[in-house]
Amino acid sequence: MKPRKIILDCDPGHDDAIAIILAGKNPAIDLLGITVESGNQTLEKTGRNALNLVQYLGLDIPVCLGASEPLIKQAEVCPAIHGESGLDGFDFDPLQRTYDPRHAVIFMIETLMQSQDKLTIVTTGPMTNLALALKMEPSIKDHIEEVVLMGGSIAYGNVTPAAEFNIQFDPEAAHIVFSSGCTVKMFGLDVTRKVLVLPEVVQRMHKIQTKSSELFVKLMTFFNATQKQVFGFEGGPLHDPVTIAYLIDPKVCKLDFMHCDIDISGGSSYGRTNCDQFDYLKLPKNTYVATAIDVNRYWDIIESSLRFY
Ligand code: RIB
Ligand code: CA
User: What is the CATH number of domain 4-306?
Assistant: First the structure.
């Protein structure tokens, strides 16, 4: 089986970091590059975190800085969950790695247009970079296999009652992507809140004793503490790696095809993913939405990926 060629667009972020671990050395994935934007923290911090991660994990892939602000809204970063650095809880060695000089949007467009094969774009943060790329060079749509994203929810939000962080951070960007005509696969809170990093998960990964498992344990220890403080969870929901886990083993999630649009009206549901699960509106279906997850299979994928380092 040929590895899936992907670009990972993210805002590291504790759970983004685990997504990078999964994508970095799993033989099912060919990680062509990491593009970064503001989200969990400012661009300066999310970018630095991405460089620290590829350096620590020994990944020889380009890291490109992208959008520092959403398209329309003001940036509202999230230190309450990810800390002041955006990746609190782990001490990295002095940073040697540097950024690829290309802007994330240019890197995305160039890599897509020059690739013989169609590429999968995975987003685990706000979708500002991808939206800008689609507007700057609409023909990249023909070079995108699919967009696989962590974000949204059929049910509740996690930053407002209605909206999930990645979508709500830049609703207009999400609207551009969901209405682009690309194949969109959405892994939202409906499934990610089912994969909590409970103490037994931390202990299981601690036993692996690799560089990546040490990173997992330390980052998740911090992440669990803030998730407990903010949401009262016994373990943090390991949101972002669900995207990569799906690419590694599609049986990990059940997807249902439905119409989904983004509330950009600016009201109390601003940034909500309106997923028409029961086809009330009879609108054209445009999104594969994850509606179930095999939790045990997911932790098996996480464990096996940690063993590649
Ligand atoms: O709502 C969860 C998402 O918001 C995750 O991607 C997390 O990293 C934050 O960006
Ligand atoms: Ca993220």
Answer: 3.90.245.10
